Structure to design on (226 residues):
């Protein structure tokens, strides 16, 4: 029998399917404090992780692992580690912004019924990996694609997600038993929500604004500040 090419026709999405994809993109939010106590069912979690696992990865290296955390004592330890780092972060801002910073809710570690730590195994695939030969960070970028897939899938499932980045990696590695050689890429809080901000929360609260897209598009080469 002749070998098949493995190719399939790239049919365009129906208009309703296309609109659903864009709706997920444009209504995705970084959730902090709107989590409901209802647990995320195992079958839903599996769908979310399957979506993450189907993210593009350079050289098909698939460098990610997913650590799921539901234990309240473990989440309490992680929240305490966040609190210490967050106090340090507040002091890094100009004095006139510190009160605004402290007023922001920047994590939902204790409130979200499910936390997920996404890691990158930088040694997976060996010493020479297709597509990583000249940019050694492609494994990290690939793992971030898995985070984005997970985020959009969560939005479709009616699950809110927040990315917590204010940690010392050493604290998280100690609490979760992560080997030193493994890179932590994202610590995520997930849970059902019944409300989402219409615009990003940091925009609503005046911390920052969305930049105009036209100012970010250059044609044929760099046109910004040097």
């Amino acid at each position: 029998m002749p070998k098949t090419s493995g190719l399939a026709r790239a049919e365009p999405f129906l208009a309703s399917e296309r609109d659903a994809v864009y709706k997920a993109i444009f209504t995705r939010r970084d959730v902090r404090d709107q989590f409901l106590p209802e647990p995320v069912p195992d079958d839903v979690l599996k769908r979310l992780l399957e979506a993450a696992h189907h993210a593009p990865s350079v050289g098909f290296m698939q460098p990610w692992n997913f650590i799921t955390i539901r234990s309240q004592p473990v989440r309490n330890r992680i929240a305490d580690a966040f609190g210490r780092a967050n106090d340090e972060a507040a002091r890094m801002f100009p004095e006139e912004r510190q009160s605004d910073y402290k007023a922001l809710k920047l994590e939902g570690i204790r409130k979200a019924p499910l936390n997920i730590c996404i890691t990158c195994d930088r040694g997976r695939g060996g010493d020479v990996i297709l597509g990583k030969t000249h940019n050694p960070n492609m494994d990290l970028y690939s793992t971030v694609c898995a985070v984005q897939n997970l985020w959009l899938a969560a939005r479709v499932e009616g699950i809110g997600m927040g990315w917590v980045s204010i940690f010392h990696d050493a604290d998280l590695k100690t609490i979760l038993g992560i080997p030193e050689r493994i890179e932590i890429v994202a610590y995520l809080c997930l849970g059902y929500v019944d409300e989402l901000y219409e615009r990003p929360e940091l925009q609503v609260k005046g911390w920052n604004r969305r930049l105009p897209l036209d100012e970010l598009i250059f044609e044929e080469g760099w046109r910004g500040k040097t």
Notes: DSSP finds seven helices and four strands in the chain. The longest strand covers residues 183-192. The domain at 28-199 is CATH 3.40.109.10 (NADH Oxidase).
